[in-house]
């Protein structure tokens, strides 16, 4: 860490006082997350975005879809700033508004639009969230996907769900939490006509999973799990539900970043974990718990490159601009898109 940058960030933050509120996702770098007022998983950060109405600026240390959601959920006088505009998410980019409209047309053609409920992962663009809200669906995160599906099939009365854009979270939740089988799930591939599915397949499916995935979590394999169990006797394999089915089904514990932290923090000294999630978080847990064995599930380096784009030079630049009365890298969502996205986000925030 560069002490000069840390000193400048601290000075700019102090000068701004209550006028700035800094949110940090658990995958952020150590030196950046040290400046966050609140750290959390995607759900907690969405809940907390509007927690400081006195702050006119919200600096989001995370990725683009999180900053968009914060803009949708905060008051009009609040500006949301993403220190580096190139901090996107490859998974969110796997579902474009045009592709999702096409998929809905295919569902209409199959005669099953009534009875199909969109459930979209937080890791999606505001346009996808608006699509979800327009069709009476909900957003979910990795910490409430089960409740979102329970709601879609229960209170909302759905016969099937179109789950966007992470096929793994959708499949893992449907099978492990709702007791469905692989046969209840089909994968809609936006690059193929009709998603590569027949009308009958769309009709008979309970889960229409979008063909999207996280490039970071997609690297963990069943072999990683087998290898670490041999290497570290007594290890508990603790993974994020964005991992593939073969990994999640072989793991001991599965949950969001907030859950992963809680499990490791609360484990007794001497416990061993192999953690399958982004490396900044795993390294932070290992450093915080020298009395526990915490290893990365993969042997290779596996940071989320877009989360890592938020670094100290960008944070200092954004904070110093604010301290001078300038706004850089503001994220704004089109008002009509925001209205429908907000509907879907509010639905998530009121899930039982
Ligand atoms: P959570 O923090 O909600 O577990 O999400 C992980 C993630 O991939 C965010 O990009
Ligand atoms: Fe997107 Fe995966 Fe990075 Fe999360 S870890 S921001 S899902 S690419």
From TrEMBL:
Instruction: Give the matching InterPro entries.
Output: NadA, NadA_sf, Quinolinate_synth_A_type3
Subcellular localization is given as:
Cytoplasm
Co-factor: note: Binds 1 [4Fe-4S] cluster per subunit.
Pathway given in the UniProt record: Cofactor biosynthesis; NAD(+) biosynthesis; quinolinate from iminoaspartate: step 1/1
Question: Could you tell me which NCBIfam families the record lists for this protein?
Answer: nadA, PRK09375.2-2, PRK09375.2-4
Q: Which family does it belong to?
A: Belongs to the quinolinate synthase family. Type 3 subfamily.
> What is the name of the protein in this document?
Quinolinate synthase
Record EC number:
2.5.1.72
Q: What does this protein do?
A: Catalyzes the condensation of iminoaspartate with dihydroxyacetone phosphate to form quinolinate.
One GO MF term: quinolinate synthetase A activity
Name of the gene encoding the protein in the UniProt record:
nadA
